[in-house]
User: What shape does this take?
Amino acid sequence: MMIQKKMNKQIFLIFLLGIFLFTIPLVRAAEKEGKLTEMATLTITNVESGDTLSAYKILDIYKNDTTNEITYGFTTQFHAFLNDSETYQDLTEEEYQKLTSGDITSGSTKTNSTLDTLASAYASYIKRNSIEGTDMTTTTDIATKELEVGTYLILPKVTKRVYAVMVGNLDYKEQNGTWQKQDAIINAKVSDALLTKTIGSTTHTDQSFLMDREYAYTITATIPAYPTNATNKTYIIKDTFSEGITFMNIEELIIKDGEAVYQATREGKVQDGSGNTIASITYTKPNLTITFDVAYITSNKLIIEYKAKLNQSAQLGKLGNQNSARLAYSNDPYGTNVVETEAVVATAYTYGLKLLKYDESDKKKGLKGAVFEIYSDSNLTTKIGSMTTKEDGTAEYKGLKEGTYYLKEVTAPAGYTLLKQNIEVQINAEQIESDEESNGYQTIEIGNQKAGLLPFTGGLGTIIYTLLGLSIVAIAATSITMYQKKLRVK
Assistant: This one.
């Protein structure tokens, strides 16, 4: 019986406690009697055209007509956030009013305490629970909305940029004993993620190269200013290579963060002087992926340098060999959303040389076995490669960049004379690409004389001197013959 009485007493106490807790909001509502519902204009400047911003109410405003006092109360939605938070569940309206902003825009300026952490936590709660706000209207670079007076958190709903959280107050100001509503204007703090890519040098997005010779790529990446309390700072660069390009080595990749220069390890780690991993690199053909931890990046711009080369699968001519880089980054510091930039493309070109070696007396007769060495200088000190003519007299060499080359014949076809002079060849990209049938090749034709024939080269003057010499020899021979006959007659 005693046990039953104790249980009844406990149940009764729980019932009373429930009534007490239930009546607290009613008491607060009674205290806040006289909620103001006038409309005021919230304006956000420095907004990207096409972006959509949403407003989430934090504070309602109340007016006591008897005392002519203005008071504030948390909205139901903000109350739910506070109850969900271990840090802020005991926060009062009076304590909130004492907060001021550190890095965000706000109308609360009563102390040096910061509103940033609270606003960031509320933004995360909104994203986590997919709470819908009131969309603002964007025209060119300004977003506006007529809203019920109060305090609002403003977050981007549609954007590719990174916005700092904003808190704006559509409040009242006392003038001569009356309260006048106030519009609010906020200049958005916005930053962008940008990516550029160059090849060979820092000024070209396309360039021609020799095959199987290393050349450099440079990627410049701008990091947006993520809010201090952001929970999503995804920042990943993915570079995709075409089949004709070979990425060299991860350990040769360099990352520049301001004045600091870091080199990757063979395992793909890039660490700062304190041992923090600022980037992790992987290469799985055809993708080079660099994942950054922006918490350890000290500047807002990164420069990434690495090397590659054209291989035997490289396309010749105007098609070129592309690799395209994209940046995947968070535009949603308090949520999970990640967007990608448009691809930035760098193109490596290369060209070929086709040679026809033929009999000078019969152009249809191709000559097999001629060997030519290719040099990039007239002094023949820098050898690029060599080519040998086939049965039909043709030879090909793939992988030359634009410029002037010099061919030296080192072996003549059997039964033919070796060329005494070197042949200058111009690889002209514009000329090659304008010829639809070139397939990326520059074509030259070289005739050859059979061994034993006098080469008629050097012009008419040489022929004259040759005939003159033969005439002198003939006259001399005739004179000697006649002289010998005279001696026999005597």
User: Anything to note?
Assistant: The first strand starts at residue 39 and ends at 45. Confidence is low (pLDDT under 50) at residues 19-31, 455-466. The first helix runs from residue 2 to 31.
